[in-house]
From TrEMBL:
This is ATP-binding domain-containing protein. Residues 129-178 form the UvrD-like helicase C-terminal domain. Keywords: ATP-binding, Nucleotide-binding. InterPro entries: P-loop_NTPase, UvrD-like_helicase_C. It comes from Photobacterium damsela subsp. piscicida. Transmembrane segments: none annotated. One of its GO terms (molecular function) is ATP binding. The lineage of its organism: Bacteria, Pseudomonadati, Pseudomonadota, Gammaproteobacteria, Vibrionales. It comes from the Bacteria.
């Protein structure tokens, strides 16, 4: 959340209800002046934005490959009009392997930016570009797939992860497809459904200065040491839960304030 409420106007939103002030209720929507005219003339929200949750990465890859094939065959898109974005650089190889296999089964060329091509070249003629969020910045395509979006709804530093998903989505000039796996993606899909239900209007109570300070502390980037402490704490909880479930610990052995964690 921006410390200066007026920043919402700088990034293209307008007030349609309430007051854009600290501690006040406000409703925002995207300004028509900041939206290309062809969006309303040629596209519908339902066609422009699609999202889907899957049980496995394989299922996700099959759906995306089928959708890409349909877009090439029926929407007159070229492979070079399509960009696939994954959230993490260090797992891009393994994450993209499922999709690359499915695309090749359909005789659709693809490349991992920086691996099969130069780092400076994102789009290649007759090939689907696949990359991670950091390399996607500064590049746009008519059709973008934000895959593994479930990553933005789990673990630490959710603010940073949500910003990465936002960046992926905003690479799209016309169509975006948001996909992921598991219950984290199910929850994210529910959020997106609510956005549709509210006709893309954002209604909320703007935090006070004190609440903004609390949010800043809660969502600040963690140091490596802080992350290590947190993960060690999680592992200890998992170990204790396993001992409780196996009968090595009874509920009486657990401090009263921690008992809700054990059912």
């Amino acid at each position: 959340m921006f410390n200066d409420p007026t920043f919402w106007k700088h990034i293209g939103y307008e007030v349609i209800g309430g007051q854009l002030e600290l501690g006040k209720l406000v409703t925002l929507q995207r300004s028509a002046e900041r939206t290309p005219t062809y969006f309303s003339e040629l596209l519908s929200p339902e066609d422009s934005i699609k999202y889907q949750s899957f049980e496995s990465k394989q299922n996700e890859a099959e759906w995306v490959a089928n959708d890409i094939q349909d877009s090439i065959n029926n929407k007159e898109l070229e492979p070079s009009d399509i960009l696939v974005v994954f959230p993490k650089a260090y797992t891009l190889g393994s994450d993209s392997a499922f999709l690359m296999s499915e695309l090749r089964k359909r005789n659709i060329n693809c490349h991992v930016v920086g691996k099969n091509t130069s780092r400076d070249i994102v789009f290649v003629e007759d090939s689907i570009a696949i990359t991670h969020i950091h390399r996607a910045k500064g590049n746009e395509a008519p059709l973008v797939y934000a895959m593994a979006a479930n990553y933005s709804n789990s673990g630490l530093e959710l603010g940073k992860k949500r910003n990465a998903l936002f960046t992926a989505i905003t690479r799209a000039k016309a169509w975006v497809r948001i996909t992921g796996v598991g219950h984290e993606m199910d929850e994210l899909s529910q959020e997106i459904t609510k956005v549709f239900e509210h006709q893309f209007q954002l209604g909320f109570k703007y935090p006070t200065s004190e609440e903004l300070a609390q949010l800043s502390t809660a969502y600040k980037d963690k140091t490596d040491g802080e992350k290590q402490d947190i993960y060690e704490g999680f592992n200890q909880i998992k170990k204790l839960k396993a001992m409780f479930e196996s009968g090595e610990l009874s509920i009486e052995d657990i401090p009263e304030e921690l008992r809700p964690l054990f059912g």
